[in-house]
Fold:
Amino acid sequence: MSSVNADWKPLIVGFCCNWCSYAGADLAGIGRMSYPATIRIIRVPCSGRVNPHFVIRAFQKGADGVLVAGCHPGDCHYSTGNFYTRRRYLLMQRLLEYMGIEPARFQVRWISAAEGAKFAQVVTQMTEEIQALGPNKKLRGGCTCNE
Structure:
């Protein structure tokens, strides 16, 4: 790891479903579980509502990694939302690889409301993986459209 990467901390945008993974993140905070402050959480009603455009936009706006976290398959509050997420994840992973973005920069994880420790572990692991890759230079400032 170079000296530039030693002080650099990645920015991870986390789309967390309201019913499970957001509650898991809350549990990690309430339980004072230690994890890096590299994630910015956006609460969404369901992981199935995360449009691929949101992921690309996060990378354009400077994210070094994107995490989509939802309920475990079969436990979705909306019955089938995370099944759509799983299908979209496979397509989105291929699209991002085609665009030159490393696969570790986009991850989908299933985290229930009772898994605060798992949330902390996922954020820690993802931070370490992205820190090893270095800053994301792809897609930054790629959109000239109005906000």
Remarks:
- DSSP finds five helices and four strands in the chain.
- Residues 17 and 46 are 5 Å apart (CA to CA).
- The chain has a mean pLDDT of 91.
